[in-house]
Amino acid sequence: MENLEEVIIDTNVVLRFLLNDDKEQSELASQIISDANCIVPVEVITEAVFVLDKVYFFDREAICEEIKDFAKIKKSMLLERDVVCYACDVYASSTLDFVDCLIDGYAKIKGYNAFTFDKKLRKSLGEKFYQI
Questions:
Q1: Quick check: helix, strand or coil at residue 28?
Q2: What is the pLDDT of residue 4?
Q3: Alpha-carbon gap, residue 5 to 3, rounded angstroms
């Protein structure tokens, strides 16, 4: 039975779904994702990327593949889906932190200008770097 209520899910739910490392929790994560109108904030994806990198030692390409596959499950589930997918592409092919990749994504996808002191991010931003 489908529940039309919106449900925000946290990083642990996303990780259990992706990793399938705890049978009971993974099954519950799959059920809620399939049955509910789930909302996944960008902050949750950012934390998931961090955990997959620092705790589970996934390489950048594998992390991005997992996140982009997750984003395809339900197009409306992942907030700022287009920015997150762009950030994944940048993250997989650079040494930028994921948050910097998101900032680059907001600049390139949403059209924002960005200001930073980070030289690598400034270079990535190109013409979207805000000049004072």
A1: helix
A2: 67
A3: 6
Tell how far CA 12 is from the center of its chain: 14
- Written as six digits, the tokens of 107 are 């600049």
The pLDDT averaged over each successive group of 10 residues in the chain (132 residues) is 78 98 98 96 98 98 98 95 98 98 98 97 96 90
35: Cβ–Cβ under 8 A, 6 or more apart, which residues?
1, 2, 3
Distance CA 47, CA 53 (A): 10
Q: Is 111 exposed, middle or buried (0-12, 13-18, 19+ CB in 10 A)?
A: exposed
57 φψ region: left (φ > 0), alpha (ψ -120 to 50), beta (else): left
Per DSSP, the three-state class of 79 is coil
Distance CA 112, CA 3 (A): 36
Fold classification of 3-128 is Rossmann fold (3.40.50)
Task: State residue 3's pLDDT score.
Answer: 52
Q: What angle do CA 66, 68, 70 make, to 5 degrees?
A: 70
Rounded to whole angstroms, the Cα distance separating 21 from 26 reads 7
102 in Cβ contact with 84 (< 8 Å)? yes
